[in-house]
Amino acid sequence: MEKLYVNEIRPNGEVSTVGLFYSRGEAENIVAQLRNIPEKSECYYEIVEAVAGSPSTSSPKQMREPVKG
Amino acid sequence: MADPVLASMVHALGLETARHYTAATPQVQAYRDRWAELAKFRDGPVNPQRVEVSDPAEMAQQIKAKAMELGASMVGICRLQPHMIDLGEDVLHEFVIVACVAEDYGKVVHGANAVEEEAMRTYAKCTEIATDLAAYIRNLGYPALAHHNGGSAVQAIPIFYQVGFGELGRHGSLINEKYGASFRPGFVTTDLPLVEDQPREFGVQDFCMNCNVCQLNCPGDAIPKEHVMTHGIKRWLIDLEKCYPYSRLRDEYCHLCVDVCPYNVKSHPKTYKSFMKERKQVGYKTPKSW
Questions:
Q1: Best exposed site among A20, A63, B171, B220 by fewest CB in 10 Å?
Q2: Which is more confident, B280 or B128?
Q3: Alpha-carbon distance B177 to B201, whole Å?
Q4: pLDDT value at position B83?
Q5: Quick check: ipTM above 0.85?
Q6: Are B110 and A69 within 8 A, CB to CB?
């Protein structure tokens, strides 16, 4: 699946990660909704591809079976 | 299926007809039925004879005492802010009250199904508390809406943080110093005049920076090493694509990231040590000193 970060960039330059999303459509929908919030009217948004090695996509270890109860 | 990530994964993996998260034991289904049954009582008529509030601090104490009487383990109050409301929803109330019920951590030694049943029991109890508390406030003459598994427009984690329940942990749940992350919430939004609680930090995020027990116990490797920042708070974003095959798309519940968290040791030292001994025996990481 595609993995994308949505970042919020505030007027003072502070960058805040909104979240990790799994399709461009979902990410764009979130950005559109955030842009409709009056308090965030001066914020900019970027959609960034989450590449392997970035925080939430660190290379997977060998998959392990969870312990059964 | 409301969760778009889960829905797309189910479709991509051809699991539309497979047994997955919708499967439930009769007891779990009974708990789910309970919150569905109470959904129609989230809102209701407001008593036209309003009780005037001269001391919001005293009223806040009264509301907290009522929630505890109804069965809550901890209660907090804060002003409702835009980031606490689901995108696309509109909740015009001024305050949000959160009432949490602690789960019985002892269930971990009885296996995944026991943990799931306890989680659902707790959610059902939270639903009852939120419903009754909202009705209590409406009877005082103020609008009040319950938010719970039967219907909600609020986000749990930012509210937990704002009322001072604790800090966000590496596993993506908020950690309280007494209950770890083993608690579930119900909420009431209202215009009843209240006094808000304050955020409280006691070192969780610093602790999580040096503790990777949840990350190394996650069967799907869904918990990242690195964090991102959101408005000055560290967030370890769980990769749902890796989490769901273990937590949703199989017969058994998975709650391991919360169950192995060392913050559980304070409230349940014997159970935690016993559980982690089992984990160690099957090759999983345990805290360094054990």
A1: A63
A2: B128
A3: 10
A4: 87
A5: no
A6: yes
